Here is the input.
Amino acid sequence: MHTQQQAASENSSMMTGRKTKMKVHPERKKEERAFWIFASPWIIGFILFTGGPMVASLWLSFTNYDVVSSPRFTGLDNFISLFQDTLFFKSLSVTTYYVVLAVPFTIVLSLLLAVLLNQKIKGLFIFRTLFYAPSIVSGVSIAFLWSWLLNPDFGFVNNVLHEWFGLAGLGWFTDAKLVVPSMVLMQLTSLGGTMVIFLASLQSLPKDLYEAADIDGAGSFRKFFNITMPLISPVILFNTIMAIISSFQIFTQAYVITKGGPEWNSYFYVYYLFDTAFSQFRMGYASAQAWILFLLIFALTMLSLTLSKRYVHYEYTSRK
Amino acid sequence: MKPKRYVHGELSLTQKAVIYGVLFLFIGLFLFPIFWMASTSLKTLGQVFQLPMVWVPSAPQWSNYVEVFRVSPFGTYMWNTIWYTGITVFATVLTSAFVAFAFARLRARGSKLMFGLVLSTMMLPPQVVMIPQYLLFNKLGWVDSYLPLVVPAFTASAFLIFLLRQFYMGISHELDEAVKIDGGSYFTMFFRVILPLSLPALATGAILEFMYRWNDLMGPLIYLNSTEHYPLSLGLANFTASYGSTPWQLLMAASIIAVTPPLLLFFFAQKHFIRGIVISGSKG
Here is the structure.
């Protein structure tokens, strides 16, 4: 890629003469102007819908604002109240519980499936399609489907437990202890995307290391932990960070299935934020919540990057 | 793309059996919910709660699918989703292609820094900007219309910019040099060379954007209040509001209707899906 670009720029400087190096050539000016024109949709969008709102939300987080009357500056009051708000800690703790369960399960299971698909088996294409298909049907409909499958009285899973094994059914979404694990279980069926990324990175690994290991008589497990894992460690890190970010934002499932219950046990962070902003119209307080979420996710991403330095190897990058 | 798979040596018969066993087990676990959704959607209300369970109803109640449209303005929800998804996908993909072209092909001071900014906005949780955005659209009197959802679509998406830029970097520069020599403008270069050559990448981008718009609940939930404006996601979420107990067979029929277009799209265009996912993983 680089050589191509260099060749192209050499070409154009050959055509336009050596002057290009001395001062900005009119052609170059034209190019620069074209850049700003082509990039303008993003620039306008960034100012209006990302950068501007970020500044506004930071400012709002230090105010009391109910949309009707104008915002009143209250300093750190919102943040002090948040740290005395039991519901804030409840929502933070159930969300953390969800993240701590969902992320490792997603990563381990999708890596396991990717490794199995990467063996010499027939029908790789069909398997990949079938594993990916459930992650297409996300959102409200899949949430209803699971609330039906795990319905305590008439749901399929409890019926099977009862009819086949003679066991009493479980409360799943209605049991305070089970509601978060049930949400994790449901989320696991849409790990197709993560699995596809793992599979692509496994397929692009160099063969020679494995051949050398074969000659040395290394078994499958040793090859996996000593060769595969280090080689795909950047991809594991990437998938883990993405999973952490998206898990922290869990909302739809709880909104559709449990409305945050039972007893706030699925009242996830974004759900509380949503209610604060759009049911109670406490925009200042909600902005403070949003900024804490942002800082939390940012800190976790940085932490993952730092902690992983010892384990992630970048000598071999598997991408084109 | 022909997968170059690493050969782990020959597998023994037992190893093969274990691998296929585990794969089939998980396929079953993953796909069973969708089967159950279809099966429930064809039952009578009595069969829904019947024990022992009815796996496949002997007389499928296709009328449930008609009933869905009778008990709720489901046709309106569908139409809203279709036009809203159509416009936003078109707008986002086209503007993102514009911006991606700038980052892939045009040299300007500060462009590297700006691209870093594009990438970092991908990591930003949308909740941080959600509230000021709402306040802005509220001031403009746009709440309870599709404007707050449609207008930002015309300002490109960071993820699609990244995806299309990756693709444009791979297109040979000889063609745009030819346009330059012919005295063509950068617009000619974009519309005559880059855009036609990048149709597969645009398809990938369009599909990913389609999935996001089709399923999104939070956006419509914040901005749309009147039932006649609801898209499928929001209509479905409120489907049972008027019932005492949930009519599961109808709810499942409605869900089947909602998931069919994305599933069909996936089966016909899965090459584009997989590529999109793989490229999104390559930014790590």
